[in-house]
# Entry
Amino acid sequence: MSIIMAHVKTVIKQASVYSRKMDRLSKRIFGEIPYELTARNARVVKAFQAMPYEENEFCIAYFPPHPMLHSLTKLLRLHGLFRDEHQDFIDELLRQRCLRGKAPPKPGEGKRAMMRRKNA
# Structure
């Protein structure tokens, strides 16, 4: 009698194809991992379970927002609320070059445009 019970226990432990497929389907439905994990798969599962970098506050605030700060300082300088001495110096040099007649040519008045007019 004990031999028969042992055989029944092993039969119960061995799942049928249908029960394995249903188990896998239920795991997929409820968001569990539908198969046994290997070391390689575990690394991928861990990466997907972690918080995305875009939502992690530490990763977002790691670098200062330079492009936004640059555009804000340009806007403040335009309204006269911020003084950028280096940009003022560059503007003054450009103004002095224009007064001496050394300014860059306007569109359509450059060297190539003059050559085109000469040949046409």
Q: What stands out?
A: The mean pLDDT is 86. Residues 66-119 form one domain. The chain has two domains: 2-60, 66-119.
